[in-house]
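FIELD: query
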Amino acid sequence: MYYFFYTLVWLIMWLPLHVLYIFSDFSYLIIYYIVGYRKSVVRNNLRNSFPEKNEAELLKIERRFYHFFCDLFVETLYEMHCSETEIKKRMKFVNVEVALQQYEKGKSVMLMTAHYGNWEWTSSLSLHLPSEKPLYGIYKQLRNSKFDTFICQLRMRFKGQNIEKYDLVRKLVQLKRDAKLAMFGMISDQTPNATSVHHWTHFLNQNTATLTGTEVLARKFDYPVYFAQIIRIKRGYYTCEFIPIALEPKLTAENEITDKYMQLLEKTIQTSPEFWLWTHRRWKIQKEKI
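FIELD: result
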């Protein structure tokens, strides 16, 4: 089944992206109106996050989200054959120089981003970095080894590298010992395990359990932290801006970095909510039930 899927996708993804969007439009009709994929989760998340909006407004966001969700799936697979020239046009990093300045100071960089916009295309940041100071994308290994390999290969298409999250500390220590620099990209809007919740914050009108691993490591190694804010300009085109969260992490208060990241993410989502991953059960951990 996997090899059939891979071959089929490999062939289809040679089509231009504007043609592939026809598949996305058709998929939207099936996934939203027929399958109703996680529609109850999306509706519950939206209602709780935007209690000030009426049903018509929430429904508009919901439909736009599902349409974008299908675009995202197509765009991610399109990486299989997308050229470096094209990806540079479609994903622009507007101020990468601010992060590169940290290299000049002898510091590696921590990037916190989210399941917002096309986060997969941010792996192309490596094309704008010195080859000896690459981007490492931190990820959690998928249960299916074949699909895990497939996704990892996509993320390495543009010279980026992957680190399984349980190997991150070892890699940080190794690079620091060898006096090597890099950037580390973290998807930081995920839900922690119920047994390892260390901090709660108010996010999108709800008590929200947060991941604090990036902050802990940033303070330990004293690596500056930026929010990689992804903005969708139009269909198939994005920008990514690096907004400083903590340039001197060791001087920050406990949870300050995590809270600032969540505030920046919340502001981004409120501006264009349809581009966040609403199918995720982000609030499955309830504070009052722990």
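FIELD: remark
The mean pLDDT is 95.
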